[in-house]
Amino acid sequence: MNQANAPTQSSMSAEQLVQSLRSQAGKPNDVFELTGALVEGDVDLRSLSFQPKVVFRSCTFRGLFDAGEATFYKSLTLVGCRFERCLHFFGTRVGGQLLLEDATIDGVPDDGASFEQMRVSGNFSAAGVRADGRLNFRGASIDGQMELSGAQIGGDLSLQNARINGNLFLRSRNGQRATIEGNAWLFGVQVGDLVELSGAVIGGDLLMEDSMLKGGLFCRPQDGERTELRGQVWVTGARVAGTVDLGGAKIGGDVLGESADINGGFFCRPQDGFRTEIGGRLWLSAVKVGSQVSLAGASIGGNVVLQHAELDGGVALRSQDNFRSEVNGDLWMVGAKISGGVDLTSAHVKGNVNLQNARLDDLVFRGESETPLAVDGSLDLEAARIGRLEMDGRATGDRSVKLPLAKVTHLNVLESIPSSVELEGFTFQQLTLPGDRFLDWLAASSTFQSSTYVYLENWLRNHGDHANANRVYLAMRRRDRWQGRKGLFRRVGDWFLDKSVGYGIHWYRPLVFYFVPILILTVILFSSPLSVQCDVPVLSGPPAIASVEPKPGEWGPTDAVATALRINLPMFALIVDDDWEPSSNKIECCGQTIGVTYAAYALVVSLLSWIAVPLFVIGLSGVLKKET
Questions:
Q1: Are 419 and 397 in contact (CB under 8 A)?
Q2: pLDDT tens readout for residues 105-129
Q3: Would residue 532 count as lying in a domain?
Q4: How many domains does the structure of the chain reveal?
Q5: Residues 66-103 as b or e (16 or more Cβ within 10 Å = b)
Q6: What is the pLDDT of residues 513-552, one digit of tens each?
Q7: Whole domain around residue 2: which residue ranges?
Q8: 0.85 exceeded by pTM
Q9: Cβ neighbours of residue 448 closer than 8 Å, sequence gap 6 or more
Q10: Residues 25, 137: one domain?
Q11: 149: which DSSP letter?
């Protein structure tokens, strides 16, 4: 291989340089090399073709360096060069690698230093490059990797619709952070491997809409410096075959990833002592993520939206590495399908948590001993389908937990019952409450529906807990009495059924508290022969009826019991024929005369028995409960 050097003088004209290049253009085995030269004037290489390798080292170009639509069949090196009036590589073809490492690009016009439509068959490296304006790689194609680590770009970096078959590196280099003062335009870019922005600073937005990354996107700390994205991050519609890792990054605005498709995870967790900080919203509506979405320990300045997202690895919003996860807005996962759990352990959500119509395996809604979970708004699980729900009832304070039409396989309520719940149509297979406080759970429901009580009552009976089932049934009837649409008389009647037979639950009350004591009292009172009398006709004189009392020895204990049964059980009198009736004598008991006759006493007891006995019968039969 022959090496052809340009004239050795330290200063030369652009015409001399071009002439030297032309003279070697057709010699593929040569190397054209120029080191430390000062080139005056515009270098015009437009549409030219060069067979040899071309190397410029530490050269200064005072004019415009224009290689637009030129073809370099082998590599082109511009390491350490200074371009005082910018450079132009629109449509340039490079058969090998293109090196711009440590170059300085000044005089950049408003539309930028152009690398548009450039084609590079090898790697492109502009590591450490310094540009005082925009670098434009729109539509460029690089078969190898693109290296911009340590670059200092005074404007935008545009890679719109570019294609990079290898990695795209924009990270720290030798202690110098890659810095873009404007926006990083990467929408529509295709990258065959990783996009690495670790430790970089982007002063504007990172725009990656509709991009395709066959690796992942990494914005982690490097060399003790966190990644700083001072504007918004747009990954809307992006297709990422790997992971999106924003661990430890500081983002000034929103992160917007609607309809993105990420095969790996989406991570915003602490990294190297830095927590992820997002100044605005995290908007991932309709996103598809093949692994976990981790927001553990992150601080998010606005809403977190995962509406209609499809997540294969769950959502972690728990504290991590002594950082408490904080959401300064709502957590919105309406209609999300989550194969895994949603873990909110010890998080602080300053708005509402909404999982309406969501499908997920687990929801952990509690705190740890030192850091409780705090939700300043409500928890809305309407029509959600959840495998296991573990919930600290204190977390929402006086706000409501909404469970209408939700289906939960196992609900475990910890510490305390929520102050307010909505339970219309809520179903479960297992229910664990602190202290088995089923009545407090139902009492916390903001609206009354008997079906809610009936469902819990049946569940308790199916699990053999009849005592609590009865309490639930009574609570339902009592709440219905005061909150249902009933008139005064119905409420009074309902109250009577409650106190007498407990709506059929306490069917034994008439027997224990009325029938047995009154029967015993009646037997005692009617053990005296003075307690009864018998009407007999008078045989002499005008026709008349006389009342006679039993003769000595004619009245005994058996007679007293029979009379007591006839008085206490009115229907018993229909089958037992007895001429003795309660007398008009005043009752004598323990040597004292009471101002009530035996007949009056019997009349009152009989009337009460016509009420008590049917109550006992229908209570025992369960008719009252079946009717409700």
A1: yes
A2: 999 999 999 999 999 999 999 999 9
A3: yes
A4: 3
A5: bbbbbbbbbbbbbbbbbbebbbbbbbbbbbbbbbbbbb
A6: 677 888 888 888 888 888 887 765 544 555 545 566 776 6
A7: 1-144
A8: no
A9: 479, 480, 483, 484
A10: yes
A11: T
